[in-house]
Amino acid sequence: MAPESDNTRLPLRAGAMLLFSIAVVCIGLGWHSAVTTTSSPEADLRAAASSASETPSSSAAVSSSAAAGAPASGTSSSTSASASSPLVCVYNAGSQSGLAVEVTDTLKAKGYRTSAPGNLQSASITENTVFYTPALRDEAEKVVADLDNGATADPRPSAFTQCRGGIAVVVITR
User: Fold this and answer.
1) pTM above 0.85, yes or no
2) Residue 84 — very low, low, confident or very high, per pLDDT cuts 50/70/90?
């Protein structure tokens, strides 16, 4: 009877070793995925939600200004710039709580069209930065001047996917 129980034990040990090796592989893949990813899924969801919520309101603002009669081209540019200005998205990448809200309120008070502020986790951005596409360089320079917080205007890296089609402001410090 003893030899028979050894035969049934060997497949159980092999099964346990197989399950153990699968668990080690899964842990290794999970660790690799966590280390190599550069964006936060939560930040991507927040950015998508804010851009989706901005789309209807911006089209409503354009249609309401068209219905009210757009200002003539010789009138104040600040009035017409608010309807046609690019979207400015502010992200807090620093440790100061509420910094993105503060900067968003400042930009909104200066007439910029802003999205909801958000947080950004990035070790590669170490100073206040305004990211722009080539078409929005002049507007980004205006944002830098209006912020007056030592921010620099830099071309948007291809890996930076937040605030597509707009100007992204990443703040670290006041």
Assistant:
1) no
2) confident
